[in-house]
Amino acid sequence: MSRHGTLHPGASVCAVVPHLACEAWLGTALASLERQTRRPDAVVVIDDASPDPAALLAVAAAHPGTTVLRADRNVGPYALVQAVVDLGLFDAYLFQDADDWSAPDRLAVLLATAHRTGADLVGSWELRILADAGEAMPVAYPTDVNAACAADPTAFALLHPTSLASAALLGRLGGFSTGLRFSGDAELLWRAVHAGRVVNAPVLAYGRRRRAGSLTTDPATGLGSPSRLALHGRLHAAARARADAARRGGPVDLAPYLVAAEPPELAHVAGPALTTPAPVGAAR
Q1: Torsion angles phi and psi, residue 132, rounded to 5
Q2: How many CB atoms lie within 10 A of CB 62?
Q3: pTM, to two decimals
Q4: Which of 204, 117, 215, 99 is nearest to 166 (CA)?
Q5: CA 126 centroid distance within chain
Q6: Model confidence over 85-105: pLDDT tens digits?
Q7: How far is CA 60 from CA 64, 89, 176, 265, in A?
Q8: What are the CA-CA distances from residue 71 to residues 56, 79, 260 (Å)?
Q9: φ, ψ at 44 (rounded to 5°)
């Protein structure tokens, strides 16, 4: 299919795994992608200049079908993912955090849901693992994300790493806010609801590990931290301004909140080179 069309089960999909010092969990994430009933056309780990590249390569050696790219400097997850999207090779991008894992039918369910609903961005429910407490809890998200964000323009109505996005939608949005180190996923969502159909499949398709030291738990960047609260104040104001413009029938500003001055340079360090996949049904 064309990257300017809608998603369907035959779309070419790249699973993107931004990585920074998550070697302890990365193998589980990659194994879950390898076990997909509908395999991604490519799986790429994008390393954010981790301090111990040898540890990453040791994990990658057990997953030779995975492409490993390494950024020339630490830039944050959104700039990493955008650098791969900008290659323009795939119809869609399946997001996956390096310390989480996917259910075996996750990609198949997301593609089928997108095809059935006409969605450009589709997520799922999560099984949240509270690592420090040794507990697990299912977390549901609204099926109709557009409606949820129409009611509350700042609703956290889709968990980004559960999702699959079409290249066409990302193009209409101008991509991620690559200048942000955190909250760029919510910022993308609050723009996306004005540019396409956004839904959640009502299934537990994603396992999310909530652990110490992640972006959402670190004291400097975590939920409730001064830096995150200050940024969210600005992002919420922008989201409400877009909602007001949409209600008035005027133009809606879909531009990313903050774009990095220079994209990272990505060096290929392991696995197959990223290339445009052969069409469905063609010899590969």
Answers
A1: -70, -30
A2: 11
A3: 0.93
A4: 117
A5: 14
A6: 999 999 999 999 999 999 999
A7: 6, 22, 27, 20
A8: 13, 10, 14
A9: -130, 125
